[in-house]
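Mods, move this if it's the wrong board.
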Amino acid sequence: MMPYLTILLEALVGAVFLVAAFGTALRWPRAVMLLRPLPVSGLARMLLAALTVLPGIGMIVSTLVPFLAFFVAVLTIVVTGALAMVSKLGGGRSSWVLSTIVVLASTGVAVLQPLGLKVLSLPKADALDYRPVPARVIKTYGEGVGFEGIAAGADGTLYLAASMGLDFTSSAYFARAHGQIIARRPDGAEQVLLATPVGSTAGVIAVAHDGTLYMTSNGRQPGIWRVTPSGAAAKIATLPSGAWPNGLDFGPDGMLYSTDSSLAQVWRIDPATGKAEVALRDQRLAARPFIALAPGANGLHFAGHDMIVTVSDSTEVLKYPLGKDGRFGAPTLVARGIPGDDFAIGKDGSLFVTTHPYNTLVRVTPDGRRTIIADARQHIVGATDAVFGRGPDDRDTLYVATDGGAFTAGPKARGQLVALRPYH
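Not the wrong board. Structure tokens:
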């Protein structure tokens, strides 16, 4: 609904300004309600027509390029005010009714489509040393296939959570999307284990000891899916509208824990019953209101009784101790300056953090040292998640899933599976 309303408002404002621009240039009295009286000088009319045509064209173009919408809306409000001032100085007045409608419609466009502002407000990543490790592309997938999660089974199978049909120019980016869990065997054979309905994405996967898969899913009905070793798939938990379950891992108590990227909290889900409750609320897990494009709390993994969480918008990595009573203690800061998505934990306790649109993989050692070990030169473009292999031959191999740079390439982006050797 909202995308259509935005386009309608853009088209309305664009049409008003284009008509006003041509009316000013050609001296059509009924078409210049934003500017009265018309200047006598032909040069003045041409200059005002040029000023008026810019927001008109900009609004029409914004229906196709949403990134421009916020800036064009601001320009439109400024030009409307300027035309009113010129009218007043010329001894006349513009139509206050039409001017008010234009300003309100432009404000609506700015509020409904602030993508440009959000992109400019993305958090800044710290400049870090680049120490590359060996990397190779295992597979490049088809256009529009983007990965959000990856997990490894004890038999060497990799599980990839793929989504198709995402539209990152819209707040309801999942509206036409659907997801899959793809099982990739050690010999390269692949099988789709789960297909979500349209309007539900594939998120992050956790593998239970018995091989059962659990996956977060955002969309019209956010929740948790389960796929048993026998292949039976079902949605076991439906979370409230407005929730955004993202990272997922088993805690030391056997419960599933999932970050909520919208609500600044962590969910606790019983894998047997699907019962969900809020395990933790903390404003440090929140993204900035309105201007944030990056999520709040994102990746989540346990190291013993410590729950480690990346907070993308604040660029922080936090650690929360889980007590025997099921309550989390106060967080400690693990690292800052890393707009992290998800991460893997290495055998030495290092964190290997993906940064999605920043196209890097950052290693954080137990003593806090941060280095970039891979970037676009190693095909780390739109990296969303990472996992170490669990098979007999790949325990030191770090597998990274990407969406191929969907934020910039859009529907033509092609997700990749990349293997790195950070300990060699």
